[in-house]
Amino acid sequence: MTSQETLQDHYDVVIVGGGHNGLVAATYLGQAGLDVLVLERLPKLGGAAVSSKAFSGVPARVSRYADLVGLLPDRIVDELGLDVELRARSVAAYAPVQRDGKHTGLLVERTEGQATADSFRELTGSDKEYDAWRAFRGEVRAFADAVAPTMLEPLRTAREVRELVEPATWEFLVEAPIGREIERRFGDDTVRGVVAADALVGTFADLQDESLVQNRAFLQHALGSEDWKVPVGGMGALTESLAVAARNAGVTVLTSAGVSGIESDGSEATVTWHDGEGWKSAHADWVLANVAPWVLQVLLGEDAGDRPEGAQFKVNMVLERLPRLRSGVSRKNAFAGTMHVAQGYERLQEAYAEGALGQLPSVQPGQFHCHSLTDPSVLGPLAVQGMHTLTYVGVHTPARAFEADVEAQRDTAVGRALDAVNDVLEEPIESLIATDKHGRPCLEAKAPQDVDEALAMPGGHIFHGDLAWPWTPNRARLDTPAQRWGVATDVENVLLCGSGARRGGAVSGLGGHNAAQAVLEARRA
Fold first, then answer.
1. What burial letters (b/e) apply to 82-116, b meaning 16+ CB within 10 Å?
2. 408 in helix, strand or coil?
3. Kindly report the CA angle at 393 between 384 and 228, in degrees rounded to 5?
4. pLDDT of 87-110, one tens digit each?
5. Alpha helices, DSSP H only, in 287-405?
6. Can you tell me the distance from the alpha carbon of 271 to that of 439, in angstroms, rounded to the nearest whole number?
7. In sequence order, what are the residues at sequence separation of 6 or more whose Cβ sits closer than 8 angstroms to the Cβ of residue 132?
8. Contacts of 330 (CB under 8 A, 6+ apart)
9. Over the Cα atoms of the chain, what is R_g?
10. Which helix (H) or strand (E) holds 272?
11. pLDDT tens by residue, 381-390
């Protein structure tokens, strides 16, 4: 935190929001010699990319909101000199399921080998589904490998990107609902569900939705590295490394600074905030908004329109030990990657239909991540006791389903999530939840409304709104650096630099990188 006495009246750039994207942008600009001020509303930097000791007297560090990193390019890490380790998980996925009265499951290794092939065969009865899986993943991976390098460049048009990829893959990823291709390629309900899950985290959509919002979420997941990785030390370790890099680059960082307004004539802007004691303001050539576009409209004094709606429900826990599964699979294999629970294809579609009616899913689909299997350091001294952190991410839990009574509906959602996983466990997970120093269960749940209240993400939407394609329409205007980098707003010198940028979403740093490049390009012109 910087004292008010050291603040200037004018900065080259003021960044509103000290989340990871804001810090990425600040560091690039600071390294280029610009005077940069970062204003963060909360007492702590990081936004959703934070970790903390969430339970009284329990030393485990929990990544309370964002928890995996798959889209942060190595180039950003290297150029900013970040001191952070992103560690691959030993398993990609496991989906426990009951078939014909028998508990079994689908295991997918991080590097697919014989165990994966055997698991597909045991579950589905032949090699047909595994052959289809490998062909599909190969086509999607080739598409993502072609598109990923463009994410750190000025936007390409849809026509230009289409020339980089196989036409058939473009057709099923970009032109038609992804559900059609999943149903065409795969016959097994569990296999279909594991594939479809990548289209639904953070996104509330029918897999057959003609808007293709689910396709854009699916593509974003594919554009991440092959392994969605665990930041060693918790998600906060990434933010801490970014904060050090920003300060080393000469950036001024101010926390507990709640911005209330942005005024701009297109060439010079004024940002006003409250520091807990009084109102302050600073002038700037540029303002970068590391907030949701909806929030930015409010800060500009404009009509923000309909509030976005998030649909992700999260539960963080500390367990005395990991539970045993009825399928007999080792707990390490089950929990080391993404464990899909109640995420068969039909169940996902049923859950969407219930959510669309404003109801919580009767059988809650979701997935578990056990970061402490990959990174025991987050447990501190608890590691030697065999304890573990466990994170649950529920899908198709839209904000509307919690509106009538957030607290009661949150409790209901927790119960249904635990019921769903208990169906595949030998012992109820509730019996393994550790207690804090006051004897309370080490469990915290976050409905979309909780995310909205804590992080000012409108509607609790973790992407700040529906994702866009990571390219521009063929006839889009690309006259200014901000337009070319996908960070433009209606105000020429106010740019998006967070998840609401065209290539934002998830923990990637892309929104921050691209906004910084737009400013630097404009200054060179």
1. bebebeebebbbbbbbeeeeebbbbbbbbebeeeb
2. helix
3. 70
4. 999 999 999 999 989 999 999 999
5. 293-299, 331-335, 345-356, 371-374
6. 46
7. 185, 186
8. none
9. 23
10. strand 269-274
11. 998 899 999 9
